[in-house]
Design a protein that fits this description.
Layout lengths: L1 E2 L11 H13 L3 E5 L5 E5 L16 E6 L9 H10 L14 E7 L6 E7 L7 H5 L5 E3 L5 E3 L9 H5 L6 E2 L18 E2 L5 H4 L6 H9 L4 E5 L6 H8 L15 E4 L2
Parallel strand pairs: 4-12
Antiparallel strand pairs: 1-5, 2-3, 4-11, 5-6, 7-8, 9-10
Protein backbone atom coordinates (compact mmCIF):
# COMPACT_ATOMS: atom_id res chain seq x y z
CA UNK A 1 0.00 0.00 0.00
CA UNK A 2 1.10 3.58 -0.55
CA UNK A 3 0.61 6.50 1.84
CA UNK A 4 -0.25 9.99 0.59
CA UNK A 5 1.37 12.42 3.01
CA UNK A 6 2.80 15.89 2.51
CA UNK A 7 6.46 16.84 2.82
CA UNK A 8 7.86 19.63 4.97
CA UNK A 9 10.01 22.42 3.57
CA UNK A 10 12.88 23.31 5.90
CA UNK A 11 14.66 26.59 6.64
CA UNK A 12 17.75 27.00 8.76
CA UNK A 13 17.26 28.84 12.08
CA UNK A 14 19.11 32.10 12.61
CA UNK A 15 21.72 31.98 15.42
CA UNK A 16 20.37 35.22 16.85
CA UNK A 17 16.94 33.75 17.30
CA UNK A 18 18.36 30.68 19.04
CA UNK A 19 20.49 32.81 21.35
CA UNK A 20 17.58 35.07 22.18
CA UNK A 21 15.30 32.16 22.93
CA UNK A 22 17.92 30.55 25.20
CA UNK A 23 18.46 33.80 27.13
CA UNK A 24 14.72 34.23 27.66
CA UNK A 25 14.27 30.63 28.78
CA UNK A 26 17.16 30.87 31.22
CA UNK A 27 15.69 34.01 32.81
CA UNK A 28 12.96 31.82 34.33
CA UNK A 29 10.69 34.76 35.12
CA UNK A 30 7.63 33.47 33.27
CA UNK A 31 8.08 29.75 33.73
CA UNK A 32 7.59 26.92 36.15
CA UNK A 33 9.54 23.71 35.77
CA UNK A 34 8.12 20.23 35.15
CA UNK A 35 10.47 17.32 35.78
CA UNK A 36 10.47 14.64 33.11
CA UNK A 37 13.45 12.55 34.20
CA UNK A 38 16.15 12.95 36.80
CA UNK A 39 18.14 15.12 34.38
CA UNK A 40 15.62 16.62 31.93
CA UNK A 41 12.93 19.23 32.48
CA UNK A 42 10.37 21.12 30.46
CA UNK A 43 9.31 24.68 31.09
CA UNK A 44 5.60 25.37 31.62
CA UNK A 45 4.47 28.81 30.48
CA UNK A 46 2.58 31.26 32.64
CA UNK A 47 1.92 31.42 36.35
CA UNK A 48 0.06 28.12 36.63
CA UNK A 49 1.91 25.70 38.86
CA UNK A 50 3.38 22.62 37.26
CA UNK A 51 1.33 19.49 37.94
CA UNK A 52 3.01 17.02 40.32
CA UNK A 53 4.86 14.38 38.32
CA UNK A 54 4.57 10.71 39.20
CA UNK A 55 7.82 8.81 39.48
CA UNK A 56 8.72 7.26 36.15
CA UNK A 57 8.22 3.52 35.93
CA UNK A 58 11.33 2.33 34.13
CA UNK A 59 9.80 -1.12 33.72
CA UNK A 60 6.81 0.23 31.77
CA UNK A 61 6.58 0.94 28.08
CA UNK A 62 3.58 3.04 27.24
CA UNK A 63 2.07 2.44 23.84
CA UNK A 64 -1.08 2.33 21.73
CA UNK A 65 -3.03 -0.23 19.77
CA UNK A 66 -5.21 1.05 16.92
CA UNK A 67 -7.86 -1.09 15.22
CA UNK A 68 -8.02 0.30 11.70
CA UNK A 69 -11.29 -1.56 11.04
CA UNK A 70 -12.97 0.64 13.66
CA UNK A 71 -11.48 3.88 12.35
CA UNK A 72 -14.03 5.62 10.12
CA UNK A 73 -12.95 7.54 7.01
CA UNK A 74 -14.73 10.71 8.10
CA UNK A 75 -13.95 10.50 11.81
CA UNK A 76 -11.32 12.87 13.20
CA UNK A 77 -12.28 12.72 16.88
CA UNK A 78 -8.70 11.86 17.84
CA UNK A 79 -7.26 14.78 15.87
CA UNK A 80 -9.74 17.29 17.30
CA UNK A 81 -9.11 16.05 20.84
CA UNK A 82 -5.35 16.41 20.41
CA UNK A 83 -5.68 19.96 19.09
CA UNK A 84 -7.96 20.95 21.96
CA UNK A 85 -5.83 19.29 24.63
CA UNK A 86 -2.46 20.57 23.45
CA UNK A 87 -3.34 23.90 21.87
CA UNK A 88 -2.25 23.55 18.25
CA UNK A 89 -4.47 25.01 15.54
CA UNK A 90 -6.00 23.25 12.58
CA UNK A 91 -3.29 23.38 9.90
CA UNK A 92 -3.78 25.77 7.00
CA UNK A 93 -0.71 24.45 5.22
CA UNK A 94 -0.30 20.68 5.53
CA UNK A 95 3.34 20.95 4.48
CA UNK A 96 4.44 23.32 7.26
CA UNK A 97 1.84 23.65 10.03
CA UNK A 98 1.68 21.55 13.20
CA UNK A 99 0.13 18.11 12.97
CA UNK A 100 0.72 16.19 16.18
CA UNK A 101 -1.65 13.55 14.86
CA UNK A 102 -3.19 13.25 11.38
CA UNK A 103 -5.49 10.94 9.48
CA UNK A 104 -3.96 9.30 6.40
CA UNK A 105 -5.45 7.05 3.75
CA UNK A 106 -3.67 3.90 2.61
CA UNK A 107 -4.67 2.53 -0.78
CA UNK A 108 -3.88 -0.89 -2.21
CA UNK A 109 -2.67 -0.20 -5.78
CA UNK A 110 -3.90 -3.60 -6.96
CA UNK A 111 -7.41 -3.78 -5.50
CA UNK A 112 -8.04 -0.08 -4.96
CA UNK A 113 -9.20 -0.80 -1.41
CA UNK A 114 -8.43 1.99 1.04
CA UNK A 115 -8.18 2.33 4.79
CA UNK A 116 -8.12 5.38 7.02
CA UNK A 117 -5.95 5.52 10.12
CA UNK A 118 -4.35 8.00 12.51
CA UNK A 119 -0.58 8.50 12.44
CA UNK A 120 1.40 10.30 15.08
CA UNK A 121 4.85 10.03 16.68
CA UNK A 122 5.33 6.28 16.98
CA UNK A 123 7.43 6.58 20.16
CA UNK A 124 10.06 4.18 18.87
CA UNK A 125 12.27 2.14 21.17
CA UNK A 126 15.21 2.94 18.86
CA UNK A 127 14.07 6.40 17.84
CA UNK A 128 15.97 7.84 14.83
CA UNK A 129 15.10 11.37 15.98
CA UNK A 130 17.07 10.95 19.20
CA UNK A 131 20.04 9.47 17.35
CA UNK A 132 20.55 12.51 15.11
CA UNK A 133 19.72 15.32 17.55
CA UNK A 134 22.95 17.29 18.17
CA UNK A 135 21.84 18.83 21.49
CA UNK A 136 19.94 15.99 23.14
CA UNK A 137 16.66 17.90 22.80
CA UNK A 138 15.02 14.83 21.30
CA UNK A 139 15.04 12.15 23.96
CA UNK A 140 13.22 9.04 25.12
CA UNK A 141 11.96 8.73 28.67
CA UNK A 142 12.56 5.61 30.72
CA UNK A 143 8.94 4.60 30.07
CA UNK A 144 9.28 4.81 26.29
CA UNK A 145 7.67 8.20 25.58
CA UNK A 146 9.68 10.26 23.07
CA UNK A 147 9.71 14.01 23.67
CA UNK A 148 11.42 17.27 22.64
CA UNK A 149 13.03 19.44 25.30
CA UNK A 150 12.08 22.91 24.06
CA UNK A 151 14.88 24.78 25.81
CA UNK A 152 17.51 22.55 24.21
CA UNK A 153 16.01 22.46 20.70
CA UNK A 154 17.92 24.73 18.28
CA UNK A 155 15.58 24.19 15.35
CA UNK A 156 18.04 22.31 13.13
CA UNK A 157 15.27 19.88 12.07
CA UNK A 158 17.59 16.90 11.71
CA UNK A 159 15.00 14.91 13.69
CA UNK A 160 12.32 15.78 11.15
CA UNK A 161 14.47 14.41 8.35
CA UNK A 162 15.29 11.27 10.32
CA UNK A 163 11.69 10.44 11.29
CA UNK A 164 10.32 7.83 8.85
CA UNK A 165 6.74 8.69 9.83
CA UNK A 166 6.77 12.44 9.07
CA UNK A 167 5.49 12.89 12.59
CA UNK A 168 7.27 16.10 13.55
CA UNK A 169 6.50 19.74 12.78
CA UNK A 170 8.54 22.94 12.93
CA UNK A 171 6.98 26.05 14.46
CA UNK A 172 7.46 28.92 12.03
CA UNK A 173 5.31 31.59 13.68
CA UNK A 174 4.95 33.17 17.10
CA UNK A 175 2.33 31.47 19.27
CA UNK A 176 -0.38 32.71 21.61
CA UNK A 177 -2.75 31.18 24.18
CA UNK A 178 -0.56 28.19 24.87
CA UNK A 179 -1.51 25.41 27.27
CA UNK A 180 0.57 25.43 30.50
CA UNK A 181 1.11 21.67 30.20
CA UNK A 182 2.15 21.79 26.53
CA UNK A 183 4.90 24.42 26.07
CA UNK A 184 5.62 25.30 22.45
CA UNK A 185 7.89 27.88 20.87
CA UNK A 186 8.74 29.46 17.53
CA UNK A 187 11.88 27.98 16.05
CA UNK A 188 11.50 24.59 17.72
CA UNK A 189 10.30 21.15 16.64
CA UNK A 190 7.30 19.42 18.17
CA UNK A 191 5.30 16.21 17.90
CA UNK A 192 2.85 14.00 19.77
CA UNK A 193 3.79 13.72 23.46
CA UNK A 194 1.34 10.86 24.08
CA UNK A 195 -0.26 13.43 26.42
CA UNK A 196 2.58 12.89 28.88
CA UNK A 197 0.97 15.26 31.39
CA UNK A 198 -2.11 13.04 31.49
CA UNK A 199 -0.12 9.82 31.61
CA UNK A 200 1.89 11.08 34.59
CA UNK A 201 -1.39 11.89 36.32
CA UNK A 202 -2.69 8.36 35.79
CA UNK A 203 -4.95 9.24 32.85
CA UNK A 204 -5.06 8.14 29.21
CA UNK A 205 -4.15 10.33 26.20
CA UNK A 206 -6.85 12.70 24.98
CA UNK A 207 -7.07 11.02 21.56
CA UNK A 208 -7.77 7.62 23.11
CA UNK A 209 -10.37 9.06 25.47
CA UNK A 210 -12.14 10.93 22.67
CA UNK A 211 -12.09 7.91 20.33
CA UNK A 212 -13.83 5.85 22.99
CA UNK A 213 -16.42 8.54 23.72
CA UNK A 214 -17.29 9.95 20.29
CA UNK A 215 -15.31 7.90 17.77
CA UNK A 216 -15.27 4.24 16.88
CA UNK A 217 -13.41 2.98 19.93
CA UNK A 218 -10.44 2.14 17.75
CA UNK A 219 -7.67 3.18 20.14
CA UNK A 220 -6.25 1.49 23.23
CA UNK A 221 -3.53 2.74 25.56
CA UNK A 222 -1.47 0.92 28.15
CA UNK A 223 1.76 -0.71 29.25
CA UNK A 224 3.13 -2.93 26.51
CA UNK A 225 5.64 -4.45 28.91
CA UNK A 226 3.00 -5.70 31.33
CA UNK A 227 1.83 -9.13 30.09
CA UNK A 228 -1.30 -8.79 32.21
CA UNK A 229 -2.35 -5.44 30.69
CA UNK A 230 -5.25 -5.35 28.24
CA UNK A 231 -3.12 -3.81 25.51
CA UNK A 232 -0.34 -6.40 25.81
CA UNK A 233 -2.87 -9.23 25.65
CA UNK A 234 -4.59 -7.73 22.60
CA UNK A 235 -1.30 -7.10 20.77
CA UNK A 236 -0.40 -10.76 21.25
CA UNK A 237 -3.83 -12.18 20.47
CA UNK A 238 -4.42 -10.14 17.34
CA UNK A 239 -0.90 -10.39 15.92
CA UNK A 240 -0.69 -6.61 15.74
CA UNK A 241 1.66 -4.97 13.24
CA UNK A 242 3.79 -1.83 13.23
CA UNK A 243 4.14 0.67 10.41
CA UNK A 244 7.49 0.03 8.66
CA UNK A 245 8.45 -2.69 11.12
CA UNK A 246 11.24 -3.55 8.68
CA UNK A 247 13.17 -0.48 9.80
CA UNK A 248 13.85 -2.09 13.16
CA UNK A 249 12.97 1.00 15.22
CA UNK A 250 10.29 -0.87 17.22
CA UNK A 251 7.40 1.65 17.30
CA UNK A 252 5.30 1.84 20.44
CA UNK A 253 2.15 2.28 18.32
CA UNK A 254 0.68 -0.97 17.01
CA UNK A 255 -2.09 -1.50 14.45
CA UNK A 256 -4.50 -4.33 13.68
CA UNK A 257 -6.53 -4.86 10.49
CA UNK A 258 -4.04 -2.70 8.63
Amino acid sequence: MSCGTGSCSCKTSEPGIDAGRRAFLKSGGAFTTVALTSTVTLMAFGEAEAAPQAALNAKARWGMLIDVAKCGDGCDACVTACRTENGWAEPKNLATDAQWIRKVTLTDPKSGASKSLPVMCQHCASAPCTDVCPTGASFKRADGIVLVDKHLCIGCRYCMMACPYKARSFIHEALEDQKPHAPRGMGTVESCTMCVHRVDAGQIPACVESCAATGGGAMMFGDLNDPNSDIAKRVAELSATQIRADLGVDPGVHYVNL
